[in-house]
Structure formats: C-alpha cells, structure tokens
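Kindly review this protein for my students:
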Amino acid sequence: MSAAQWRKAMNSGAASAARPVTAAPVVPLTTQEPAERGEHGELPRWMKRVFRDVGARHVVVMLGLLLYPLVANGFFTFQVGAQSLALGLVALSLTFLGGYGGMVSVAQMTVAGVAGYLLAIFGSSSATAISLGWPWWLAAVFAIALATVFATLVGWLSVRTEGIYTIMITLAIGVAFFYLAQQNYSLFNGHQGFNKLFPPTVLDIDFREATPFYYLSLACALAGYFFVKLLVRAPFGVALQGIRDNPRRMNSLGYNVTAHRVAAYAVAGLLAAVGGVLLAWYNNRISPGSMNTGAMINILVIAVLGGMNRPIGAFIGAVVFVLLQNFAVDLVDRERFNLVIGGVFLAIVLFSPNGLVGIWTQLRARLGSRKAINPRRRLQ
C-alpha cells in the first residue's frame, strides 16, 4: 500500500469515527407480532392443520355412521356395529402405541379386562357379595381411571426394552393377570366372573337396546379417534414419533424418552379402558375368558388388518374381524374360524404391509385422485 492510499484510508476512518451514532428505533410492544400463532385466542398451528384435514370424506363417513341404525336391523346395529366400535377403540390404543410410538404391546386387552372387572367390582353385578353397588357413572369413572394407572405401570415396566422383549413382557403381564383372575374367588369370582353387567338408563334412554348402545359406542369411538388425531399433531405426538424413529437423537436434544413412552402407555390405557367398559356392557359380563391369550392376539390381528399407520385402520380392521367372526361359520366350521382369520391376516400382510388402509391408499394413488404421500408425513 502506498503512502497516499494509507493517508486516504486513515482520513475516511477518522470521518466515520466522528460521525454520530444513532440508536436503532425502538418498536413499541403493542405493535410487535405475537411470537406464536396460538396467542390472542387463536388455535395452535397443529390444531388448525387437523381441522383443515377434516374434509368431505369425513363428513360422508360420519353421516353414514349416524344413519346406519336407520337402515340396519337390530343384529347388524348391535352385533356388528356396536361390537366393531368397542373392539376398534381397544385396537386404536395398540395402533397409537405401535404406529406412533414404535411399541407393540399385547396387553391392551388385559387393560380393557381390568376396566371391565373394576366396573363389576365397584358397580352392580350378579355377585352381590363382591360388588359394592356404586352408581354406574362413579363405577365407570373409577374403573377407567384405575385401568389407566394399571396401563401406566405396564408401560413403566416395558419401556426399558425394545422389540421382541417388549412383546414378551406385555404378554407375560397379560397371562399373569388372566391366571390371577381365574384362580381368585374373593375379588374376581374365579372362572365364573361377573354377570348381569347391564348398561345404564340415562334420561329415560335405555342403553340396553341396540340403537342407543350403538350411538353410545359411536360417541366414544369418535372421541377416541379425534383425540388421537389431535394428539399426534401436538408437540407431544411429534416428539413421540421422533422417539420412535431415533430415540438416541431425541435424547441428545433434551427430550425425556422414558417419560414420553410411559405417557404414551397411559394414553393408550385410557382408550383401552373405555373400550373395556363398552365391551363389558356389550357382553353383560366379564370373565377371564374375555382377556385370555386368544383375545389379546385378536386385538393385534385387528390392528394389523386395518393398518397401524392410520387411526381409522383400527376400526376398519374391527369391522372385518367382526364380519368374519359372524359369517365365516357359514363357510367353515366354527372350530376353524381361526384358520380363516389366519388366512386373511397372511394375505393382508403379504400384499399390503400397511393393512387395508394401505390397499385403499395404493388404489387412490393409481387412479390419480390424490398426490403422492410424503413419507415423512405418512403417519400424520
């Protein structure tokens, strides 16, 4: 650098140093934008996305479900419709755990059985020496709450394992409770269980009848379905899916992996407990046979048949399972029903790993009626 260039640079620096420094304008707090979209009474972004996804197909399906008892007889309304909704609610708990949490538990029917037993113990049943005779609403609330606590304890024992070990632990818990209920007569009334668990009568509406019980099951199923839809879009649901994909990375980001997984078991237990109360009212009884190994495997079959990547898959799988259960005897012997279920299950797994919902998605994609699904948002 020459002497002339050096003097020029020094003069420009001195001029800039002598120039007064002006402070940045202060923006009043009243004119600043809210930090999040959820302020000032607005809905959070994830909740807005859920309501935006409720399109015409949801309205059509809901209208069909509401009008179903008007076109179906009592058998299809109660035996097919109500039973499918109750079983679908229990399967939804497994879909939430497996599809969004990556945890496969076969003890969800055990949680439903615990809720049914507690409903009989706290409420009214044929075993008057054991049942406490509480009002139905109080017995139902305590049954659901304690069954949720039981599911949380199951999750606390299971979340420290992965894969086949989680399945074995939950299976062991389910089998242990089955034998406990079967051999205990002072609290669970042994292998006989509890009979005369009738649904209540509210405001002159007798829920023992087919149509009112169907609408009760439908209300609980819709509440569980939209609750899961909202939860998986919420920050907790997004974090749970991140833990499913990469727990180590989520742990390094500061998320408590164990706490999120235990909370997921609690949410799934709440859904299964409500389904267990509905099943106890549907069958008018609860016994060890209601939650044996076959019943636990049936919930897993229902969830896989429908598809564990969408909440609606649990109810679709339940409808298919109930239809096969009621009408497969016309094709084969009743003793060979499990053979039919196994064949359908094998075909679905081979041709569509995502279940019946996956088949529907593939057909819509081939027909060009929707855009390609982003793999990162497939479970949302």
